[in-house]
Structures are given as structure tokens and as C-alpha cells.
Prior knowledge:
Layout: E1 5-6, H1 21-35, H2 41-55, H3 57-69, H4 71-79, H5 81-86, E2 97-102, E3 107-112, H6 121-124, H7 134-142, H8 144-150, E4 160-165, E5 170-175, H9 187-191, H10 196-200
Parallel strand pairs: 2-5, 3-4
Antiparallel strand pairs: 1-4
Helix pairs in contact: 3-4, 7-8
Amino acid sequence: MTGHSHDHDHHHDHDHSTLSEMDVRVRALETLLTQKGYIDPAAIDRIIETYEKEVGPHNGAQVVAKAWAEPDFKAWLLEDATAAIASLGFTGRQGEHMVAVENTPEQHNMVVCTLCSCYPWTVLGLPPVWYKSAAYRSRAVIEPRKVLADFGVSLPENTRIRVWDSTAEVRYLVLPKRPHGTDHLSTTELAGLVTRDAMIGTALI
């Protein structure tokens, strides 16, 4: 499988608190436009929240629902996520390679970007603020079980937690376990159950 995951004793030498040049430029521009009265920060926050939590993740939810409903698509997704996702019309913004990792009773997967905030925009929309925080980027690798507990996720002690580190070249999509009692649901209804956090691995569904 392309990419790499981290053991829990991985150490970090990166300065996670440093803003990228793009972050600095965007914040400066937003401040200037706000001061001049051209934009309403509250409106921008609402637009970002909508795309972050509602519009953006719909693409990924469709991918997950199709994998739950169609065994052949699921096998294709796990073998070649880039191609399987592209077949639904969702392709990488910069040609990055997609890898799907499946949650099972034996293994739970989490995604992090330890260097900055690499994230599969095409299928998940905008990354949540906490995904880009220094605390999440460092703690997810060092103490993933405690991070999951912070999100309200409690897993059996015998469930292995594997943390996948996204890069500019490789982005990950977690395939959550299909909830019990959903055999009667359509693909559209299944997609409505899938949350953004579940596709990052910080929620079960």
C-alpha cells in the first residue's frame, strides 16, 4: 500500500505552530477587506462552515455509501482508491494519489498530516480547524486513543489504532464500518449517515 503510517512512539521535530506563507497572506487580505467594509467575517465563517461540514463531505459520503452497497466497488476502492473515486467524478485538485483504509473490528484508522494540513479536499471539502491544529497533528500520532476519547470515541482495547500521515502526494480516506441494521437503506440514505469526521477517523460514523 502506498504511503506510510506511524507507530505511537514517533517523535516530531517540526514546528507545527508556524503559519504557511499562504495562511499569512490570506489572513492579511481578510483583515484588510474587513477593515474596508467589503466583507462580513461572520458571513465568511458561515460559508466556510457550510462547505466544511455540509457541502464538501457529500462527495466522500457518496464514495463510502457506494462501497458499503456494492462489494465490487469496495474492492476497487481498497485496491485503487484514486481510480475508484475518479469514476464518480471526484478527482484530485493537484493529482494526488488517494488511498482508502478500511475500519474493521481489529483495526481503526485515523488520518493526520504531521507536517502541515494535507487533506483530500476533493472528497472531504475544507479541512476542519482542529485538523490543522498543532495539538491534533502531534497528539494523534503520540496518543491516538486519547485523541479519539476527546472526540467521544471509545474502542475496545484489542482494537489496533493505525495513524496514517497524509502528504502532498498521498491523501487518505477512512472507510468506516457500515452500521448494523442498514441493509434496507438506499445508497442515498446510506450517504446521509456518513460524517466528515468518520472519513478522517475521529468518529465511527
